[in-house]
Amino acid sequence: MSMFVASRMTKHPISVTSDATIQQADRLMKKHKFHRMLVVDNGKLVGYFSDRDIMRVAPSPATTLSKFEIRSLLDKISVRDIMHDEVITVNESATIEEAALIMYQNKVGGLPVVSDVGAVVGIITATDILKTFIKVMGLIGGKTRLTLEVDNKVGVMAEITKIFADNGINIDSFITCRHKNNRYELVVRLDERPEGFDDIKKILGERGYKIVHSVNIG
After folding, report:
1. Do residues 82 and 150 share a domain?
2. For a surface tag, which of 13, 41, 133, 208 has the fewest beta carbons within 10 Å of its beta carbon?
3. Please, are residues 110 and 103 in contact by the beta-carbon 8 Å criterion?
4. pTM
5. What is the pLDDT of residues 22-64, one digit of tens each?
6. How many structural domains is the chain composed of?
């Protein structure tokens, strides 16, 4: 499975031009149940706005204005009057990990995806990234997850993988997480619950590897 933004994004996102009226933008957002929308002029991203920005300039529900007067007022305000022109983006050639980091650092739930020439080619959200990681980790098909606490020393990975190999158990993936006092948590994922799993846990314990958690997922 590809771990690049280009293969996980939603292509050709719905957008509006900066000269669209607030009323046009509001109807489009409600139709597609959007909370944010991109503003694109001549294929180039120039800004974005949210439903909150529309609410900020719309008349209060308690207004005495008629519906005709409200429509007339909103038709006089264009998207460029409420949009934010500083937009955080990600390039289509970026990895999923890079996109996730940008979202985390900037506290946003989605990113417009642009080409090398600045054209908008898609949008990627936190949900898209979550779906990708779930598929990459194979969680839907079922996994057994084993967490070990190990010393940070040369040869640990080799010894652990040999224990599994000697017992005929294939390791699906490894993840290491820095723990404390120069120790690491080593997460081992296996396909479903293999035969001999309890024996493996016993052997690992006898070799001095502390098992802190095990669970079946999916």
Report:
1. no
2. 208
3. yes
4. 0.72
5. 888 988 999 998 888 999 998 889 999 988 888 887 655 545 5
6. 2
